[in-house]
Design goal:
Length: 128
């Protein structure tokens, strides 16, 4: 809706290989992470999922962290229509223009819903 989307989980899922993930900053920008030691995404066309919802959980010290409801419509996460073609050997920049229209999925139950990690080029996103 023309504004940066902060604290959103971004997941790039390649056709072959493991996914990459990131969390957007206050400007809606992000750098994809493949593993603990490598940034990027597996080259090729990836399905892209963007989500703000997080399940409630309990911290290591036993304090409860409440669930955060999803604000991004399902067409950008559960039923994503987003894709991005990651080109090898280049600095890839992805800019997704999301709208707040559409049905929103219920917050997941159980553990935090942060996406898994993944590898390849770097990507950035600026907002809902």
């Amino acid at each position: 809706d023309g504004r940066p989307l902060a604290d959103a989980q971004v997941l790039f899922v390649p056709a072959n290989g493991r996914p990459s993930s990131a969390t957007t900053d206050s400007n809606g920008s992000f750098t994809m992470v493949y593993s603990e030691h490598a940034d990027g995404v597996v080259p090729g066309t990836c399905r892209v999922m963007i989500s703000t919802g997080k399940a409630g959980k309990e911290n290591e010290d036993g304090t409860s962290v409440p669930a955060i409801p999803e604000t991004v419509p399902m067409e950008y996460n559960v039923d994503t229509s987003l894709t991005f073609d990651v080109k090898p050997g280049t600095s890839n920049v992805a800019d997704f223009k999301l709208t707040g229209n559409g049905q929103v999925a219920a917050a997941p139950s159980g553990e935090d819903s942060a996406p898994d990690s993944g590898r390849g080029g770097k990507s950035r996103e600026s907002g809902e």
